[in-house]
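User: Structure with phosphoenolpyruvate, tokens only please.
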Amino acid sequence: MLTLTPSRVRLGWVAENKAEAIRLVGQVMVEAGFISPAYVDSMLEREQVSATLLGPGIAIPHGLPEARDLVLQTGVVVVQFPAGVAWSQDGHARLVVGIATRSDEHLQVLAHLTDVLGDEARVEALSSTRDIALVVEALNVPGTEPVPPAAPVPDGPSLQVRSPSPDGLHARPATVLVEVVRRFRADVTVHHEGRQASARSLLSLLRLGARGGSTLTLTAAGDDADAVLLALRDAFDAGLGEATSTPSPRTAVVLDYEGAWVAGLSASPGIAAGPVWAFQRQRLEVEERADDAAREHLLLDAALAGAATELRQLHEGFLLKVGARRAAIFKAHLELLDDPELRSETHGLIDTGLSAGEAWRRVFESRAEALAAMEAPVLAARAADLRDVGLRVLRPLARAQEAAPLLPDHPVVLLAEDLAPSDTARLDPARVLGLCTAGGGTTSHTAIIARSLDLPAVVAVGPAVLALRNGQHCILDGDAGVLVVEPSEGDRAKAARQRERLRQRREAEKLERYRPAITLDGQRVEVAANISEAAEAARAVEAGGEGVGLMRTEFLFLRRDEPPGEEEQLHAYRAMVRALNGLPLILRTLDIGGDKHAPYLSLPAEENPFLGVRGIRLCFEREDLFRTQLRALLRASKEGPVRIMYPMVATPEELTRARAITESVRREVGAAPVETGIMMEVPSAVMMAEQLARDVSFFSIGTNDLTQYALAMDRRHPALAPRVDGLHPAVLRMVALTVKAARQAGIWVGACGGIAGDPAGAVVLSGLGVTELSVAIPSIPAVKALLRGISMADAEAVARAALACTTATEVRSLVRGLLERKGTNA
Ligand code: PEP
Ligand code: MG
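Assistant:
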């Protein structure tokens, strides 16, 4: 039971506004050891979802359900603001009760507070008293409240439901309940453990103190009684507006961390521990002084307005994708930007002869430094926000220095809204321990690059991570897909032990990396590498790769001001052929578009970039680029086994056209014919696989795109990311169709999307008849070891069963079952 102790009560405080009051209350809660400082942000976000004014004079700020892991200990604090604080349009709060609970213990307090609320004189006395004991006595829940005898539930239409889990019928779901009932004329009564409440009265519902999962009986009387009960059943089924968190189907077992953790999706395995660092793309340099103050004033205003637009767009973008609560950080940034003092001080400095950029930088830096120096962690956290906002304004005022991303001189876990492929490719892996992004998905290019660099990565964590301060310690668990903030000593030890276990397993797999992947019943699956630059070819061989199944050549075209010429490309392709020393090299022709941009091509902006002029379509639009690339590829083919693969082929006509251009270039350069294949990544190509198979030597299934196009879910969409799983039976059926068509035509099928390197994916794809898996270099030894530990007959049986499944989760548990039976590590 929750008990309010005198040390948790503060009387006679003053706050200018609600945010300040909440921060002050949060500070008391932090000092009491009830919450981590980050919970205060969630309390602020909570107010944006709906204000927590319980009734006249009393507010009950608390965090959002998803922040409950930031609650360290259940407890309540009370801060009295005798002068009142404007809380919502419904009124002021004078008694603010900060609540920290992981589940529904606070319902008793709420039920009791509602009793107090009913007594105006008592609220007035408590809001002005100087006697702590009076507050403690009034708000403490009596120890053993007698349970009234159960009142009989009247006859008539009724419905039994469960109070929403885990937090019970607290203010927000109770409000939803009231709103549903108000749409009808019938009177609805909620019965709970002998008490009754009118479903039209929030206070009365709160007084029930119904805990999560407890049984409620709803009765209705009136001409639309049946209709209201039906609507209520739907509302309860939907959790009364409470987020029902669906665990990621791919999330591995979380290591039972004690520290607060935020969950995202595992994008690249491994565990990293260290300080966090917010990714910053550019070094910003500004002129110190400017002659024309009037112009600088205008520049400042334009930069401020631009930053506000960006923040509003970010807010709207994240709002659609992850909901109001998680998008609220951008609103908070907008508020910081709106600070009239910041603006007037900067304009004042411009009048002394400073440039707009220099003036702005001085003002926001000095404010941020002052905040950072404050003891209260909540205020210190605001410093990071202020710097973030400050840099956003500074960018258009500065001479941007295009440079490698700014990193400190020690290794860090990098945090970012999202990373473009060119950002990720520019990172110095020696200074990055891992990547954590607010957005993105498991098949985004951030994930692909992280896997190839062997960096643990967690994506789609939501914007809350952007509020972390540089230097805060964390554990990034890429296997479980979580970021643990300020881990305990115990957490660090756990993470270190797990890292050591993984290291030993990898060591053992590495020793066997040159052994082919031959299953227990003698079937061979080739394991090749996905690479994106020439130097990786040698690494692929070193890691046990039996060739390169996918060279993403577009990476040679990114991060530069003009396309690489024929000689430069020839040099790169030749270097790969030589490093592979006779092993096959599949060079995929340019796949620009989608999320990969080469600004120098000045391509028109796309409304739907993944459905636009991308891959082979772009090569037809820019045949000059295509021909130059083909010349280089075909010239390199004179030195070793090069295969050409076209991306994004959707129709047989496209293949015919690509082959015709290739053939004409081949004649020009006098090369021998090479094997050509296509990526199978567009559903229409799968449906036309029989026709396509007649004209190619192989198919390579791009499960990253095939999944996004088959399920109609953007592969980078953070809210959809948990469901964009290549093991979805819909995708697997497309794989099966592809294999069938290929077998009929006598050609082979590989797979080079992310699930080829995922243990469950490797088993199912092999079982479906895919004979080459092309994976990130660090995954090669593990995939080979895995396949050596199972029989193809088993893989085929699992694959058959997978095709009959309804969800990716079912498919994953089928494979887990097989691997557990075989005692194979995965
Ligand atoms: C794929 O789509 O699965 C693939 C391998 O190509 P990319 O990820 O480069 O689009
Ligand atoms: Mg693709």
